[in-house]
Amino acid sequence: MKAVVTGAAGFLGSELTRQLIREGYQVIAIDNLSTGLRERLQELEAHPSFQFINADVSSPEMADLENVQGVEEIYHLASPASPRFYQAYPLETIAANTLGTKRMLDFARTWNAKLLYTSTSEVYGDPEVHPQSEEYRGHVTTMGPRACYDESKRLGEVYCYEYYSRWGVRVAIARLFNTYSAALRNDDGRVISNLVTQALTSQPMTVYGDGSQTRSFCYIDDTIRGLRSMMREAAADGEVINLGNPGEISILDLARLIRKLAGSDSPIIFRPLPKDDPKQRNPRIDKAIKLLNWRPSVTLEEGLRRTIAAYRSVLSKEGAE
After folding, report:
1. Could you list the residue range(s) of the whole structural domain that residue 48 is in?
2. CA triplet 48, 53, 57: central angle to 5 degrees?
3. Which of 149, 236, 294, 310 has the fewest beta carbons under 10 Å from its own?
4. HSE (CB half, 13 Å, CA atoms) of 95?
5. Which secondary structure element, helix H or strand E, spans residue 232, and what is its range?
6. What distance lies between CA 16 and its chain's CA centroid?
7. Pick the catalytic residue: 86, 117, 124, 149?
8. Is 149 designated active site?
9. Contact 215, 281 (CB under 8 A)
10. Is residue 215 part of a domain?
C-alpha cells in the first residue's frame, strides 16, 4: 500500500507517517518545512519505504508527482495550524488550503486514490450553537486575523465537495478539535504548548481574557486513530466528520490543571483576549460514533501527563547542553 502525506514534518503528520510505515505502507512525505521540522522524520530517512519531498503543495513543482504510480491514500494535512504561524504566513496558509487542496484532489482523481482532508473546528468561528455538530454552518468573518486559516479551510472543504460530487473522487473531511501531544513544538504558540513550557520553566502562565473561554482537547493518538478510520471506512466517503474530545474545559481551569500536574508554582497572569478568539468550542461526535465507531480514549489529564513528561525531558537535555 502506498500513501502520500502532506504536511508530513508537522507534529500530526510526522506521527501519522511513522504509524503508516509501521503498518507496512510506502509513504511519500511532502513538506516545505515552513513550520514543520525535518528532524521529526529523522529516524525514517534511511527506511526503504520512506521518501521525503521538500516542496510546497501549492507550487507548480508538485506537478512532478503526476508520474507517481500506485498511490491509494492521500492524507492532506499541509497547512500552518497555530495562530502564531498562520498569522505570520497568511497568504501561504490560504494557498496550502485552496490551491494545494485542489492539486492533491487532482492527484486523487488521476490515481483513483482516496483523499482525507484535515479541516478544522475553526470553520465554526465563534459559534452561536453549542456544542457544534457538522450541520452547523458557523459564525465566521472574512475580515480578521484568523480568517486566512478559517476561510481557506472552508474553501478547501468546498473543493472536496465539488470533486466528490462532480467526478466521484473519494474524499473524507475531518474537522479536528485542538489536537495536542508531546510532539507539539514548545514554541508552537498553541495554548497547551505555551502553558506547559511556562509551567516547567517557572515563567508566568499566560491566560488571555478572563480565561472563561472553553476548548476541547484531543490527544494525538485518538486523532490519528480517527483519521485512519475515516480513510478505511467507505461510510466516511463524501462526509464531514468532527474528530475531537467532547470533554470541555475553560482555559483558566486548563492552566490550573497543568500547573498542578507539573508541580509548578508559576503565577497565572492575564492578557487581553486576541481579536475573534472564540468563546466556546466543543464537538458533537455522534457522527463519528455512528459511522466510524470512534470515540476518544485518552483523558485530558493522562494526555497532559504524557506531554509534561516529554517537555520536561527535552528541557532538561537543553539545560544540560
Report:
1. 2-177+220-243
2. 140
3. 310
4. 10
5. helix 220-232
6. 11
7. 149
8. yes
9. yes
10. no
Question: How many CB atoms are closer than 10 A to CB 303?
Answer: 22
The angle that helices 300-320 and 251-262 make with each other, rounded to 10 degrees, is 60
pLDDT score recorded for residue 187: 67
Q: Let me know the angle formed at the C-alpha of 50 by 24 and 177, rounded to the nearest 5 degrees.
A: 80
Amino acid at the residue 219: Y
Residue 320 pLDDT greater than 60, yes or no:
no
The position carrying cell 479536528 is 176
Mean pLDDT across 49-61: 92
- Whether 157 is covered by a domain: the verdict is yes
129 burial (CB, 10 Å; 0-12 / 13-18 / 19+) is middle
Residue 5 has a pLDDT of: 98
150-179 in b/e form (b: 16+ CB < 10 A) is: bbbbbebbebbeebbeeeebbbbbbbbbbb
For the chain, what is the mean pLDDT?
94
pTM above 0.90, yes or no: yes
Number of domains in the chain: 1
- What DSSP assignment string belongs to 77-139? --S--SHHHHHHSHHHHHHHHTHHHHHHHHHHHHHT-EEEEEEEGGGGBS-SSSSB-TT---B
In a domain, 282, yes or no: no
Q: What is the CATH number of the domain that holds 76?
A: 3.40.50.720
Give the other-Cβ count within 10 Å of 263's Cβ. 10
Name the nearest CA neighbour of 103 among 72, 64, 153, 52. 64
Cell of 249: 474545559
